[in-house]
Design brief:
There is one protein chain. This protein is an alpha+beta fold. It has 2 domains: 158 residues, no CATH class; 189 residues, Sandwich (Jelly Rolls), CATH 2.60.120.330. Helix content is 20%, strand content 37%. It has 9 helices and 25 strands. The termini are far apart. The protein binds fe (ii) ion (FE2). Fe (ii) ion (FE2) binds next to loops.
């Protein structure tokens, strides 16, 4: 059992709702202290405090097992838009307080990510700060995936004024891309065998496939476009996947150079083990493509799918297409829904103009 004590200032006698990592928890109030006896995850934790009664509360300290989080309390924020604050008011009744366990690790992590002198100003105006949320997934998933979804050993900071093109510190960027998800879904479902019987097997699946373990539902990657010694090779007939190729031509017509394109298939109760793709680091074909260089186009993703970037959190796929940085950020995903889902991945060599067009479309 761990002990969290939050000290506050208030004019009146406030009352709160408190949750830890999205789960409501019990607490006691003793004069100006909120006392929580609860087990705390290793790594990052997110405490959410909502003011139910009272006009204004100012948080002044948080200790975990007697160790103060000192200035990192200034990472506390309210949402929409994320704004640094240690005040809980009627206008902004919910405050999120990130902290870590053990506190010594947390203080070191914060010192690495945020310059000391910035505390006390609105950190969320200067930085995009990403915190992974902890979720518990079914024990039918491998322990590796359970732990990957549960723990967050860090958080991620990107300076807002950094460019998008070739920015290795940016995990993803939302783009405005028109695509007919329903038609693509129908097309992929009716060609599911074609998508499975592809020459390409992701490295992480090769051993398992060789073993032919029938209990392992692996994800499939149908590599549709790739190149071999500067020659572009197309694996499928356009008439078999007309909507997919329409999307490819739409992207090419924007002057974007495609290096490879694939369709990933993940069945219910299946997963993609955490990994990083290091295309641009290894191969001359991919030279000059660091950063968010891959289209991520979700097709048929129902609720209870999770695509997590290490230290960053869950990609909000329900909002549509993104450019993602799969090379610099480890990522893994599960399908805990009842429907097969697909992802179109298109890896490109972008220019500044391409990026501006995709964001402004
Ligand atoms: Fe990947």
């Amino acid at each position: 059992m761990d002990k969290i004590i939050i000290t506050f200032d208030a004019e009146d006698t406030p009352n709160f709702d408190i949750s830890l990592n999205s789960k409501p928890i019990n607490f006691q109030i003793d004069s100006n202290n909120i006392i929580i006896d609860h087990s705390v995850l290793f790594g990052l934790n997110l405490l959410e405090i909502t003011l139910l009664q009272g006009s204004e509360v100012i948080l002044t300290d948080l200790t975990l097992n007697g160790v103060s989080n000192r200035q990192t309390l200034y990472l506390s924020y309210y949402e929409n838009p994320d704004t640094s604050s240690t005040w809980i008011t009627e206008q902004h009744p919910t405050l999120v307080v990130p902290f870590g366990n053990p506190m010594s690790w947390w203080l070191a992590e914060c010192a690495k990510k945020i310059p000391n002198t910035y505390y006390g100003s609105n950190l969320y105006e200067k930085f995009d700060i990403f915190y992974g949320r902890s979720i518990s997934i079914d024990e039918t998933f491998p322990r590796l995936l359970q732990d990957f979804m549960k723990y967050n050993f860090g958080f991620h900071v990107n300076e807002k004024n950094n460019e998008i093109l070739h920015n290795k510190s940016l995990p993803w960027v939302k783009i405005n891309l028109e695509y007919d998800e329903q038609r693509l879904l129908e097309e992929f479902l009716s060609n599911i065998e074609l998508l499975e019987n592809n020459y390409y097997t992701p490295k992480q699946n090769r051993y398992a496939k060789h073993k032919k373990d029938p209990d392992l539902a692996l994800w499939e990657v149908a590599m549709a476009i790739h190149s071999d010694q500067d020659k572009s090779i197309i694996e499928f007939q356009e008439q078999d996947l007309p909507h997919f190729f329409k999307l490819i031509h739409q992207i090419e017509s924007m002057g974007i150079e495609i290096i490879h394109a694939f369709i990933g298939t993940v069945y219910p109760n299946s997963y993609v083990a955490p990994h990083a793709d290091d295309f641009y680091k290894n191969s001359s074909q991919y030279e000059g493509t660091p950063g968010c260089s891959q289209f991520f186009i979700p097709v048929g993703w129902k609720d209870n799918n999770y695509f997590k970037f290490d230290n960053v959190g869950f990609l909000p796929y329900e909002q549509g297409a993104y450019l993602v940085n799969n090379s610099d950020f480890m990522h893994g995903s599960i399908n805990n829904s009842d429907a097969v889902r697909f992802t179109i991945g298109i890896y490109c060599r972008f220019t500044e103009e391409n990026i501006q067009t995709l964001i402004a479309l």
